[in-house]
Design brief:
By secondary structure, the protein is an alpha+beta fold. The protein has four domains: 62 residues, no CATH class; 150 residues, Sandwich (Chondroitinase Ac, Chain A, domain 3), CATH 2.60.220; 76 residues, no CATH class; 99 residues, Immunoglobulin-like (Sandwich). The chain is built from seven helices and 35 strands. Helix 5 runs antiparallel to helix 6.
């Protein structure tokens, strides 16, 4: 059967294109010269594809029927795949879920301006997450850590960058944010780090205390219990403070009034031995209020008992005899020196009362704010739980799916944070590495060695090129980014012999039809 060449350009699915991607096979057909333990990977034209400029026409074989399909592909640069940050409007007392499923817990006073004043309105945040080698390379942030003279390479369980859109906005160190990162890696052997931009290095914060298999469902339950408990305890505190406030109010001194002899007045003639509770009111005069329907004839009766009750700024005097009661509303009145003395007592008493009431009112206001804040967070958490419930049920039904692992950071200033396990470089095989393009030697300051099978990445600086390390048992990939941002790669580690001590790595320009981060991850099988 004759081979047919289809010259009309048509789109084919990534899965079809990748199905016939066989770089190992192509390179094996190339001239591989092995002498004195030196391996040269030479460039091959024709069926391997010829890169002409910024695009390349790559010929894909289609099994036994020999149909060819031409497809345009673009050379990829870092600038083409740099992701946009997620923009988040952060309000006080809230729990926010990011697009990737991470959580940001914000308190009442979490944001301040450059003068340290609390910002009450919403704040615009910029949030980026990095979870795989490609995203870490795109970030441009060093993924190495020096400790006691030894350089370690991060095996990241997730990294994020959080900033305010307005550079004048800061995080209040007394009310830090909690960023709960939706990590893609399980395990407990991780530390938390913060990147110092000025020193250009990572600073250790704390051990990550996340339990194994701590899923998003478990984290949401934990947060719900935390803030529901806070609601309950704060409700009790608010109720207690209101009770104290009511009792203080009952003790508020009443402004003494000078006696007006034209108005009716009532005085209690009482034996303090028989009725000690009324001793305070002996000889005290109460001026009858106009709406009391006072009957002067009642004063001629001898009553068996009297009770005096304070009600706000008046007193109710109730007289009892047999089954008869008579109540009068009045206010204490004084004359002459007695009035002056009572006025001084009142001034002292009202000052003490105001101090106590101000103190309890302030405490009540603060506790009420805490209660409302906890209530708002619980509402946000419940909303996220309701949204997540179908997803959790779907995962359980499918079975075997990797659940999210939530890792908590305390963030007291904007910047970049990482959850990592420092690792040393592999030692299984060491070669003298040279990196080449079809034009000649590449001038690189660093390359990235990715172990795709365990999602580890090592940054290999040029000082280590002569002792380039890797483990041949892993699914290795080298990625480089040159001075103009062009991405190249090498993944033909199967062509390197166990005894080779010098290797020329022929770095292939990354050319794919979908030059997005998603397309590249699919291409590299991240």
């Amino acid at each position: 059967m004759k081979n047919k060449i289809e010259t009309k350009e048509r789109e084919i699915a990534d899965s079809d294109a990748l199905k016939y991607k066989d770089f190992d096979g192509v390179l094996k057909k190339a001239s591989i010269l092995k002498a004195s333990s030196r391996v040269n990977f030479k460039w091959v034209g024709g069926i391997a594809g010829v890169i002409l400029a910024s695009t390349a026409a790559v010929i894909y074989f289609s099994g036994s029927d020999g149909i060819f399909a031409a497809r345009k592909e673009k050379i990829v640069t870092i600038a083409m795949i740099t992701p946009d940050a997620e923009k988040i409007t952060a309000s006080n007392n809230s729990v926010i879920e990011t697009k990737n499923g991470s959580l940001i817990v914000i308190d009442e006073n979490s944001f301040v301006d450059q003068n340290g004043q609390v910002i009450k309105s919403g704040v615009e945040l910029s949030f980026k997450e990095y979870h795989d080698p490609l995203e870490q390379i795109i970030s441009g942030i060093p993924m190495t850590y020096d400790s006691a003279g030894t350089q370690y390479h991060f095996e990241s369980a997730g990294m994020f960058e959080i900033n305010a859109v307005d550079a004048n906005v800061k995080i209040n160190p007394h009310a830090p944010l909690r960023v709960i990162l939706n990590s893609k890696k399980n395990g407990t052997d991780y530390n938390l780090y913060e990147y110092n931009k000025e020193k250009k290095n990572w600073e250790f914060l704390a051990r990550d205390k996340t339990p194994a298999n701590f899923s998003k469902e478990k984290m949401l339950k934990k947060l719900h219990i935390e803030f529901s408990g806070k609601m309950s305890s704060t409700k009790d505190q608010v109720a207690s403070l209101k009770s104290v406030q009511a009792n203080i109010d009952k003790e508020k001194p009443i402004l003494p009034k000078e006696e007006n002899k034209e108005n009716y007045r009532v005085s209690i003639d009482v034996d303090p031995v028989e009725m000690p509770e009324l001793a305070t009111f002996k000889n005290l005069k109460f001026e009858v209020l106009p709406n009391s329907n006072f009957d002067p004839r009642k004063a001629n009766l001898v009553w068996e008992y009297a009770a005096v009750k304070k009600e706000k700024e008046k007193y109710i005097i109730t007289f009892y005899k047999g089954g008869t009661t008579y109540a009068v509303e009045g206010v204490p009145v004084y004359s002459g020196k007695n009035y002056s003395d009572e006025k001084r007592k009142f001034d002292f008493g009202i000052s003490a009362y105001n101090r106590r009431m101000d103190s309890i009112t302030l405490a009540l206001s603060e506790k009420t704010k805490i209660l409302e804040a906890a209530k708002k967070k619980v509402e946000d958490i419940i909303a996220i739980q309701v949204k997540e419930k179908p997803l959790i049920a779907e995962d359980e039904e499918v079975g075997g799916m990797e659940h999210e692992v939530l890792r908590a950071f305390t963030v007291s200033k904007f910047g970049t944070y990482n959850c990592d396990c420092p690792k040393t470089l592999p030692t299984e095989q060491i070669v003298n590495a040279h990196f080449k393009s079809k034009e000649g030697n590449l001038s690189l300051t660093q390359v990235y060695l990715v172990e795709r099978n365990n999602k580890k990445m090592y940054t290999i600086y040029d000082s280590f090129f002569k002792t380039f390390p890797f483990n041949p048992k892993n699914s290795n990939l080298i990625i480089s980014v040159d001075s103009i941002g062009q991405i190249r790669y090498f993944d033909n580690f199967g062509s390197i012999g166990s005894g080779d001590d010098k290797v020329d790595f022929a770095m292939t320009p990354l050319t794919i039809a979908d030059p997005s981060a998603v397309g590249i991850k699919k291409f590299f099988n991240f």
